[in-house]
Amino acid sequence: MKKVITYGTFDLLHYGHINLLRRAREQGDYLIVVLSTDEFNWKEKQKKCYFEYDKRKQLLEAIRYVDLVIPENSWEQKINDVKEFRIDKFVMGDDWAGKFDFIENETDAEVIYLPRTPEISTTQIKKDLEAKKSE
Predict the structure, then answer these.
(1) Nearest C-alpha neighbor of 12 from the set 133, 130, 135, 134
(2) SS3 call for 117
(3) What is the E.C. number (predicted)?
(4) Tens of pLDDT along 34-61?
């Protein structure tokens, strides 16, 4: 069984997220999504999510491509996650290209950067909603 792992916040879930999860799952037989906790998002990125962790986890668990959702509490946990879950492929969107290449040097996992869905992003949704408020 080929195991795949990906990381993200997955706030304001949209079809770009679904595309990424589908394509990540196509890389193997079992997909683990490591979901950023609210504390991690605030501490590391100064980002506050619209949906709290438990709600975002519930949404991800309802997606057929996702087999397991676990929390992301730190940037450093990635190597341990890959080793603990015996991951074959580490998948991220291509906006992270090159940032996780070190995982191939420290584990047996292959790192793959998948193209993002270009016309949609959570950031763009937030900007569009803000613009509509001021109309």
Answers:
(1) 130
(2) coil
(3) 2.7.7.39
(4) 999 999 999 987 888 899 999 999 999 9
